[in-house]
Amino acid sequence: MAPELYDVAVIGAGVIGAAVARRLSSYRLRIVLLEKEVEVSFGVSKANSGIIHGGFHHGPETLKARLEIAGNLMFDRLQRELHFPFRRCGILVAALSVEEMKAVEKLYAQGLANQAIGIELAGRDRLLALEPRLNPDVVGGLYAPSGGVIEPYRFVFSLIENAQANGLELRTSFKLARVQRRNGEYLLCAEDGAAVRARYAVNCAGLYADQVSALFGAEDFTIVPRKGEEFLLDRNARGLPDKVIFPVPTPISKGILVIPTVEGTCMVGPTAVDIEDKEDLATSQSNLQVVFAAARRLVPALSERDIITSFAGLRPTLKGGDFFIAPSAKAPRLIQAAGIQSPGLTASPAVAEFVKDLLKKSGLELAEKPDWDPFLKPVPRIRELAPFQVDELTREDPSYGEVVCRCESVSEAEIVAAIRRGHRTLDGIKFYTRAQMGRCQGGFCTYRILRILARETGLPMERISKRGPGSELLRSEL
Amino acid sequence: MTEKRYDAVVFGGGSAGLAAASRIAAAGFSVAILERELEPGGVLNQCIHSGFGLHVFHEDLTGPEYAERFIARVRGAAGLDVYLGTTAQEVAVEEAGAREPIVVYGYSRRYGILRLTARAAVLAMGCRERNRGNIGIPGTRPAGIFTAGLAQRLINIDGYLPGKRAVIVGSGDIGLIMARRLIWSGAEVLGVIEIQSYPSGLTRNIVQCLNDFGIPLHLSHVVSRILGRDRVEAVEVSPVREGVVQSQGGFRLDCDTVLLSVGLVPDNELSKKFGVALNPETGGPLVDAGLQTTVPGVFACGNVLHVHDLVDYVTEEAERCGGFVTEYLRGEFQPRQYRIQPGANVKYVVPNRWFADRENRFYLRPLIVANQARLAVRLDGETVKERRLAHVQPSEMLSLTLRAQELAGIEAIRENTLEVSIT
Q1: Is A57 considered catalytic here?
Q2: N or C: which end of chain A has fewer CB within 10 A?
Q3: ipTM at complex level
């Protein structure tokens, strides 16, 4: 039997693949989203700063700037449709010397040229009024009110769930190993022998976009992973700011920032070091001092004592520094979306729009689905509700009353909702629900989640993993 | 929503909560215990080893046996309701004047949402384990890293072995107990790594859980890196000299599991919702001589107040707390109190005040390791009480009783503060 034929195969279920898949799901097309990991958003989109940028970090000549500004503007509507955690808290760049202020003035000019909405050059008093937690030695800075914070994985989950409701097919654990072109179609074969056919393909493979491009016999480029370490602080820590605070940027990164997350914790980081291994997510001790010294320069009250966890993420960087989004000049009907690092998350909905246009130019017929539904039904979350509202929910489903994760207030009903939406690993449940993400880091709820997973999926306890095969938690029954 | 009124509500049905609640109920007051788990007893339920009750019952009991004695007191006590599987999600103290100013919303599968009001409350939530993020072990983030208490629960209650070759980080008591438990379950324990130059668990546990099984204890060492992509594959261990991790002289242990026994923290999230002031030295609430927090009518006892070494001390403290709550409910809780503070080589002393006219009992934790030490209680440089101690170390809590007659002469000097020191 011939493998299933799709109009478009989107390779990679990170934020770019998810945004492209969701955009295409509004047309009469058969779309498949291929992901090598066991769950979606398990790569670059899982570990990043979660910032919706304000449109001033990149020059007006770049694709980055154009798509960042366009993408930023699309988030209000997306949030109304998909209900992911997102808040326009505003972004500040703080200058601590006259020299730094000159660099800030350049950023401001760049922002104006990009037509970034509402950006403002601010003096010391204005900046401290906007953010009283800022270092009082600040001399001035930039304020970008359109900037904000988001839970990146929740954004990816909601894009994909909505696309699935509109007909998208998702194949996880699909590790692309071979690509053949036959009769004007691509045959995409996975390591385990699974295969699909597709008329068009989009390369959204993040860190592995270079390898995927090579499988297609398309452009030759190299993705260099740039590691960033982040430290997460307890929501009860003192002196947490209300706005995202940037230092003056360096040539390779936007610097070490202080990020009040949309869920009330605070993140400091990331570092920026080019490395070779695309799976090297190890953290180091020396970065702690570096990160906190840099962060305290911006917000003096921050303390290492409030760290609840640290983690590392990788940025998929491409030589030249700009996004590479274009139809392949070598492989027909392949659209490349590579080198999507910061501000890729902000740009993602605009990247999707751009990719859709490129597919159209390459000959893909786009007929709108009359029954396309852009809305996702929200999952009630007890930490956002008052007791009388939870009381109403428990009448329908008593498991809303069962608090599984005490640190982040997550009910059993929310865990079950995550499982029913395809999350089968502890990390998947963590990113969907926040259970295990708080100050005890799963010390009190891991065994409860293991049991719920076993009950809901029918899997034996020893088969339940942290993030896929090989990462099972338990060795054997006693 | 179910609404109920009580004289007192107790947060937590572990050793502290059970002892405090049964004491309050015995005095004829109505009490509700809110407990998250489906069984009362708290962490005792997973402590299937013996060594509990030597002080309180003069018997060597297992954790569940010890818990059962208090569960039996609670079961069938008049006016005492135990809400199992119930999480106290929201709490508040209403404006003065309300008959039952304490408002609690309990969430549960069985009862739905409960709204309880009470005249007094007892914080007895216990403690939680410090984890990898708190101590910042570098390296990868694979499966196979557990806090020792979680591993204990998985083995003793759920019946699963978390790993076959384990390294234990920290020589806290749970880690030591788990070293022995893993061996008995057929796993290997390659060593216990302790950053300090002395063990942080009780001496009897070092002997019975490590020495008896030939498990090496590496003092003044840290795990400097965790390796492995999906599952733990090894750890790197490095020596520490004068607080600095050394790059030379380290070694590697191939293992599939890392257990963390790196300290306990009083679990005061609910206390913060009450607005209770905390003591940075203990991580628990500041309390007066009657174990009342800075919020009137809200009391604290057990590991939520400060981390105890032995459950026997928790019981003793919780029963006294129950007695103070009873006095409060009767309107008799108005005694004269003065301050007491830690002096030389004392990390903390609990409670933070003393009664002028009755017996006081304090718990304190030393900052030093020493033989032939002297514990002194002074007022304005004048010694009120002195005791010789054969040996002190930070991992072993000390208790101190000051009787009314010992304090009789000093009551007149009102403004002064007692100071406890170890030399």
Answers
A1: no
A2: N
A3: 0.93
